TrEMBL record, chains A, B, C:
SUPFAM superfamilies in the record: (2r)-phospho-3-sulfolactate synthase ComA
Entry similarity comment: Belongs to the phosphosulfolactate synthase family.
UniProt superkingdom: Bacteria
Stated name of the protein: Phosphosulfolactate synthase
Gene3D superfamilies hit by this protein: Aldolase class I
Length: 251, 251, 251
């Protein structure tokens, strides 16, 4: 902190087990990544290279190096895993992970129909190589799952070897956990939290109202994902109760 | 591509006649332009300096040089043409084109009332100096044209010497081709495509839902315009069927 | 201007008393600040480091230096004042102002309940050290004030020593002066202008439709605030009647 302000909620520090922030890079240049790290390194635990952007973004190795040197773990979006699986190229996916020396990988089934047993097998296989983050929830707004279904999938994925679960929202924050309007499906969230330890979940919350909701519900050290890099300082002030929206949460 | 993924739709390569992407720069610094080109050069055919921003943006020559060296054609928005014409300064407009050694120019009548014959005369005159892109459609949401009108204007402008037609949407994607909600006027698009070769049209499509619509309708190599520079990698993955929205279009 | 276009409304020049633009920086890196100043220095009078971001943004001194060298006055958002006051740390706030050699400070009560007399005392006290900008209006959408109330608060704050008044909108442009939809509360604006000289007010207007509204109402040289840095060139063209939205205002 640049100066002293009393009674600020204690934030966890790196390497964090809780209070994680996962930010989405959807096509930064190397210098843009460096600018983001200049302000965000202390507050960013993971940088997800959104969906399949890692396939085509230039200077990928250099960008990964920028994030690593700043102490943020880069990994590739779950849609990349799906793109390999749907093409029967899972072994090539493993080679990509090896080529880029990734320590984390995301497994999802938001865009493909993957029998859940098979998804869990992929989780178990990948967990031998990297730390696995698995995503629950469809990117398709018409496929609404009942809470008990979310919970049983989550439990099975943890058992299969997932380190953390990501609750789907997309970049736009209007599917999965959220209604099309971006509003939180509160009943769903309550039921999940009744069965799964909140530390195990990274809530995708791209919109400010969604971040505020989860900070209010769980506290400054909730795990949040799909954060816009330009909002990393803003999010941190929101977590600390230093923005209009959360001003009275911690005092 | 950074690694091998099978069965990706074949994208055209530069210099493209089809599958064009026109991106809008609404006031980048020289370094921001360079960052954009680092990631987007291969995917960007044209950079439009939005509306009249070329008049006041500092270091204009340097920025144009950045785009040219990266192999993207810069040009000035059609509103600049209109600003000169409404002031009876068309000859000064020609001098601006010459001063900045532009190879492309956009002619539009989105903000002024210009008799269509006169617009076509301007197209013919300009076509002697540069490659002309002409824009059809008003920026005014209350001026909705019937499809037959769009088609007859488009045909006349091609005949007058336009190389490509731009279908208006504004930066915000809520006029011309689109309803105020941003939804595509599908009947209009169908009728246009029945009469005008799709290769001749650059569809302004600033919103993701609009890009997805045209990629679904016409394919990976549809011409798209008014793309946000920050979305250039995202758009390319969308074209290639590698994003949730288009995941099943090409497999 | 890069070339000659006739009949453009005369914009005031720095140091401006009128036609002020206040831009919001919500967490730029030093280089991002420099990029912003490369294009925006001539058009930007004030840079507000949004709400409490000054507390945690890295390299704060360097960033302030970038803005100062470019001739834009940096200052800290009013929420920072409130964060100190609510913790009974006003003296520490004075020390922060001194430490960073700030020449301007914003006083607000958007997030805390502060008796108005007390707010005016803070204005008077601060005015001995810096030029005070005070903000009127709540960040809470449910607290809608009648126009006479806005006016009486504004008059009292000017009397207490405020140099300019800011009319609240938040970063999102949907409270205070605006309905939840972002629409201007026109009756409110009219009544304020009937009693308070428009030169004394900086209208927070983050959305384009709001900027267009005030430019139409008051002219090219209206004072506008909470502008997105990426829109600084766009705003200037809008002020000059060189964008579709304002094309016919000054010709």
């Amino acid at each position: 902190m640049n100066f002293q302000l009393n009674n600020i909620p204690q934030r966890t520090e790196k390497p964090r087990e809780n209070g994680l922030t996962m930010v989405m890079d959807k096509g930064f240049s190397v210098r843009q990544a460096a600018d983001f790290m200049e302000v965000g390194a202390a507050y960013t635990d993971f940088v997800k290279l959104g969906w399949t952007t890692a396939l085509i973004v230039p200077k990928l190795e250099e960008k990964l190096a920028v994030y690593r040197e700043a102490g943020a773990h880069p990994y590739f979006g779950g849609t990349l895993f799906e793109a390999f699986v749907v093409r029967d190229q899972f072994d090539d996916f493993l080679r990509v992970i090896e080529k880029y020396r990734l320590e984390y990988a995301e497994i999802s089934d938001g865009s493909i129909a993957l029998p859940h047993e098979e998804k869990c097998e992929y989780i178990a296989k990948l967990a031998q190589h990297v730390t696995v983050i698995s995503e629950v929830g469809s990117k398709d707004n018409t496929k609404i799952m009942a809470p008990y279904k979310w919970i049983s999938l989550m439990k099975a994925e943890l058992e299969a070897g997932s380190w953390r679960l990501i609750a789907e929202s997309r970049e736009s924050g209007n599917v999965g956990l959220y209604r099309e309007s971006g509003e939180v499906r509160q009943g769903l969230v309550d039921e999940i939290l009744n069965e799964i330890p909140n530390e195990k979940i990274i809530w995708e919350a791209p919109l400010k109202s969604q971040q505020v909701y989860f900070i209010h519900l769980i506290g400054a050290n909730v795990n949040l994902g799909n954060i816009n890099p330009a909002e990393i300082i803003a999010l941190e002030t929101t977590r600390m109760g230093l923005r209009g929206d959360t001003f009275h949460y911690f005092i």
